[in-house]
Amino acid sequence: MKKLGRIHPNRQVLAFILMVFLSQVHLEPIRYSVLEETESGSFVAHLTKDLGLGIAELAARSAGVVSDDDKQRLQLDRQTGDLFLREKLDREELCGPIEPCILHFQVFLEMPVQFFQGELLIQDINDHSPVFPEREVLLKIPENSQPGTLFPLIIAEDLDVGSNGLQKYTISPNSHFHILTRNHSEGKKYPDLVQDKPLDREEQSEFSLTLVALDGGSPPRSGTIMVRILIMDINDNAPEFVHTPYGVQVLENSPLDSPIVRVLARDVDAGNFGSVSYGLFQASDEIKQTFSINEVTGEILLKKKLDFEKIKSYHVEIEATDGGGLSGKGTVVIEVVDVNDNPPELIISSLTSSIPENAPETVVSIFRIRDRDSGENGKTICSIPDNLPFVLKPTLKNFYTLVTERPLDRETRAEYNITITVTDLGTPRLKTQQSITVQVSDVNDNAPAFTQTSYTLFVRENNSPALHIGSVSATDRDSGTNAQVTYLLLPPQDPQLPLASLVSINADNGHLFALRSLDYEALQAFEFRVGATDRSPELSSRVPARAGAGRQSTTRPSRLCPLNALRPAPSWCPGPPSGYLVTKVVAVDGDSGQNAWLSYQLLKASEPGLFGVWAHNGEVRTARLLSERDAAKHRLVVLVKDNGEPPRSATATLHVLLVDGFSQPYLPLPEAALAQAQNDSLTIYLVVALASVSSLFLLSVLLFVAVRLCRRSRAASVGRCSVPEGPFPGHQVGVSGTETLSQSYQYEVCLTGDSGTGEFKFLKPIFPNLLVQDTGREVKENPNFRNSFVFS
């Protein structure tokens, strides 16, 4: 079969030869019978016993029933193996006059493919009466007609067959005629009127008789027609056809009004008795609709399109009648010649649209082909493209099975479009194409693969807990749930390494987090392994990783801004830029693992968009450049929550004040300022009085201090930064317990704005600096929470 797939012409020839061979294989069919007009759903047979199969096998092998005429008149119950009628059957509609009436069907099974031939005999019942095409017939008989002369009469039609069909004719009792029933070669029965004694027109010129047609049913059914007989004057020569029968062949694609044949009859009589007219005699409705005859010339014309596949030949009876009423009979046999006007048909009986990858030989589709033409026009060949991993296998009676040639790989190709081409051998050749789309479903046959062979992570010592230190990533070539990767930490090779308390990993995205603060002096680096697994059946891979702790500098900066004494300094100070570190919020959770992963977020702010909180380390930074238009007081609510189930959380409230430098020795809290504003009005009067008495003294002191400060500032070094002496109140600065930014500093700095290298002077700042005040804690839930507010 592989060679057949590579060579397209040979493949088609071999498939065709095998098809012809298999079509000639004779398998004894299973036969059943049923009466026509039996109600739908009626039981026909129990197939499991006749086929030698079990009931469970029918369902497991997807048994089905297919009829030759494409109409599903039978239904198979796979659970019981019973065969039922899907619809009421009419024998006359299915077979017409053909006897016996047999409905051919096939029973097919899959895995492996197997076929059984079946025949259902539809038995006739007497449900139709004989019917004459007309209600009355006129018969003209010359008076010199001799006894024993036969006069053909019109026949009756009975759709039933066999004993239920038309059996005999009778006529009403009279003294001059009786009926003779004759059998035709085609099986039809014809009535002939037989003259019993001489006629005398002067004695009786007309007879009215009743002709009765009887069938053989029980009870018998009948049909009647009135026969009127006129006695005519003598015309002793009837017309005779020159040739009888006439034989002619006509192509089925002949156009309408095409001449078929011209018949000729002669009458030796003279005058009106010698003139001949032509007509169709005892023609069926089909012949009347298909042909017409010219009464004068005898030329037969085509009135309806011919179809070889429906009717292959016509027997047309012609009657030639002279002026005296005598007639002669002739026959024209018209044979329809087939032309290639029907493309092949492809009927799919079974189709599987999805096939799992790596599966062995799998049945994709079962179908059959048919061509309604005959001879070479009805012979077909079937093929598919050669570049596909599929093959066609011919089976019984034009049935084909489309199967996979080898196991499929979804990662190489996930979908196949298969075009089945059926071509006949007629002239011109006609073909039919049917496209089938086959999806290759995924199975878990690829393990996750890391994007790197190893990972190296760097963490500064004294880091905050739950710090994101890096990520690992793995991909899976499978699809859907088979490609979902889960990350995990493998047991360390060193049993002394407490890996579970050092690092954790997010199982969904591979993010790595440090669970505790690292100390370079205690642990400089450690190695561990990360695993990645997919869905069932579980496939996995692993990768080594190394995490190292970086040493943190503990030297206090001696200079916060560049110095350049060559240029004079302008008299303005820039405000904090965007991203300026205002403070840092630190929370500690007594849990471990994922339950100790903490994340920070800004829950509420009096002015949104001015400050932001970093989710992993809790740093509060400015989101944009501060300006004089911003409010002086800001209230921030920071939320911290762990990664447990259910998550637990806590909140802290921060108050941020924008001040003009740190020259003020004490900055009251908003609550203290509010309480002071509510003092009694008597205090205000006392302050005013004291100020009036001592105003002169204070003015003198201020002038003296101003002179001294002016002289001292001129003697100071150019460009140095001034730090106010004396500590600020403890509630303004918090100290972290994690050794990160462990000291808090407050500076009042003046920096030149031209090139970044100006000199420094002790000037009063114009733009505001930041002051953070911790107003306490608002703990909603555990974990333990503490704040460290740092700014520099």
Automatic annotation (TrEMBL):
Q: What is its main location?
A: membrane
> What SUPFAM superfamilies would the database entry show?
Cadherin-like
The superkingdom listed in its UniProt entry is Eukaryota
Cellular component GO terms held in the UniProt record: plasma membrane
| Annotated TM spans | 684-707
First and last residue of the signal peptide: 1-27
Q: Which UniProt keywords apply?
A: Calcium, Cell adhesion, Cell membrane, Glycoprotein, Membrane, Repeat, Signal, Transmembrane, Transmembrane helix
An example Pfam family from this entry, by short name, is Cadherin_C_2
Annotated GO biological process: homophilic cell adhesion via plasma membrane adhesion molecules; nervous system development
* Molecular functions (GO terms): calcium ion binding
Reply yes or no: does the keyword Transmembrane helix apply.
yes
From the Swiss-Prot or TrEMBL record, state where the protein is found: Cell membrane
Q: Which residues form the Cadherin domain?
A: 133-241, 242-346, 347-450, 451-572, 577-667
Q: How does it sit in the membrane?
A: Single-pass type I membrane protein
CDD domains in the cross-refs: Cadherin_repeat
Q: Which residue ranges are recorded for the region named Disordered?
A: 537-559
What's the stated role of this polypeptide? Potential calcium-dependent cell-adhesion protein. May be involved in the establishment and maintenance of specific neuronal connections in the brain.
Q: What is this protein called?
A: Protocadherin beta 4
GN (gene name): PCDHB4
